[in-house]
């Protein structure tokens, strides 16, 4: 079978809501990642055959062919096409998988997979505003769906609470996990662990290179003092992912392109899996998706050196660890979305950049990445660092 290789994977730092990147138009932010991939690889931008860009809230500045606008804002020639995709939080991870499928099929040789989300300038649920303001229709869920599942809406917050109850996690356990996320992210930042994956963004003429959401002075007491999102629940804003502005991307190529353009790969894609399950509990799907991916790859969890499991809410990676039998020391070694932020459509390639660079620094071989997604979907990608 033909192979798909990653030549470079990069991300911007994370910006807090109304924080350091609030002045950046999301198309320009995405364009900086596209430019960074071209600059770091030295490839002729004219040979890029497509840009597949993930974005969840496709409204306002992220509407109207958002991926194409990112290309037009970049140094890529206008001859490069682009498409915006939405697989919820796994959008840019799916972009990688679509790009790899194009390369492995022989349809294309050089594809950029990316993602971008300005949660400051295009807040969550902005794309529902037409229904809310105009009173048109009944929203995304038809009466048929509501009747089938006995709900008025699907809630990720509700799903996180369900997982916590199912797996027996109390608030203290979740808060301790959140604290560890901040501690790992702070240690990684201090050690310069993110330096090779970050594309700086200029703010008032100054390059910003640091993730803004990390609490370097985080304490268990401080995290525990944050108000719960639901009375009697265990989820708070402090043990859930942070709203974040950011962009990320990866250059995916064929073996033929490696030779033709003199490129050096940093990773090989071993397996790509996507599954779907219960849309009500929703966030549990990374567990069966991981089992399927490992089985298809002929691997066990013991073969995997590092894993990135998106910290949408603390119960998600904790449940994954418990069910899969993973080693906590291999999970999100540089911190996760609780500390670093979760820029929705950009998180897939963001985590991938972190995973690949973490593997290479440690001299490790295999990495697994998985992401819970709206509607009860999950992507899993297994990589080999080269």
TrEMBL record:
Residues 5-255 form the Thiolase N-terminal domain. GO terms for molecular function: acetyl-CoA C-acyltransferase activity. Residues 263-384 form the Thiolase C-terminal domain. Keywords: Acyltransferase, Transferase. The keyword Acyltransferase applies. The keyword Acyltransferase applies. CDD domains: thiolase (cd00751). Pfam families: Thiolase_C (PF02803), Thiolase_N (PF00108). The active site is at residues 89, 342, 372. SUPFAM superfamilies: Thiolase-like. NCBIfam families: AcCoA-C-Actrans, PRK06504.1. Belongs to the thiolase-like superfamily. Thiolase family. This is Acetyl-CoA acetyltransferase.
């Amino acid at each position: 079978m033909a192979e798909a290789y990653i030549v470079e994977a990069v991300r911007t730092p994370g910006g807090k809501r109304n924080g350091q990147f609030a002045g950046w138009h999301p198309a320009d932010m995405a364009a900086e990642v596209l430019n960074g991939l071209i600059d770091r690889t030295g490839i002729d931008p004219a040979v890029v055959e497509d840009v597949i860009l993930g974005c969840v809230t496709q409204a306002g500045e992220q509407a109207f062919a958002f991926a194409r606008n990112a290309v037009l804002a970049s140094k890529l020639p206008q001859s490069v096409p682009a498409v915006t995709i939405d697989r919820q939080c796994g959008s840019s991870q799916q972009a990688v998988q679509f790009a790899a499928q194009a390369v492995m099929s022989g349809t294309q040789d050089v594809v950029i997979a990316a993602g971008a989300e300005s949660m400051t300038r295009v807040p969550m649920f902005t794309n529902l505003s037409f229904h809310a303001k105009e009173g048109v229709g009944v929203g995304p869920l038809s009466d048929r769906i509501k009747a089938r599942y006995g709900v008025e809406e699907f809630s990720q917050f509700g799903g996180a609470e369900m997982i916590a109850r199912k797996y027996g996690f109390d608030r203290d356990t979740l808060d301790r996990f959140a604290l560890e996320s901040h501690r790992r992210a702070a240690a990684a930042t201090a050690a310069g662990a993110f330096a090779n994956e970050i594309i700086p963004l200029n703010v008032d003429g100054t390059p910003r290179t640091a993730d803004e959401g990390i609490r370097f002075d985080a304490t268990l007491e401080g995290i525990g003092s944050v108000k719960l999102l639901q009375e009697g629940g265990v989820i708070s804003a402090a043990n859930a992912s942070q709203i974040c502005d950011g962009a990320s991307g990866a250059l995916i190529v064929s073996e033929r392109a490696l030779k033709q353009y003199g490129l050096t790969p940093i990773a090989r894609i071993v397996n790509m899996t996507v599954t779907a399950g219960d849309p009500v509990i929703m966030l549990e799907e990374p567990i069966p998706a991981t089992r399927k991916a490992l089985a298809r790859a002929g691997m066990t969890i013991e073969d995997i050196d590092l894993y990135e499991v998106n910290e949408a809410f603390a119960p998600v990676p904790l449940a994954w660890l418990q069910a899969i039998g993973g080693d906590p020391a291999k999970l999100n070694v540089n911190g996760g979305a609780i500390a670093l932020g979760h820029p929705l459509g950009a998180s897939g390639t963001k985590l991938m950049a972190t995973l690949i660079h973490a593997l290479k620094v440690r001299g490790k071989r295999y990495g697994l990445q998985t992401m819970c997604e709206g509607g009860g979907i999950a992507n899993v990608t297994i990589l080999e660092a080269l």
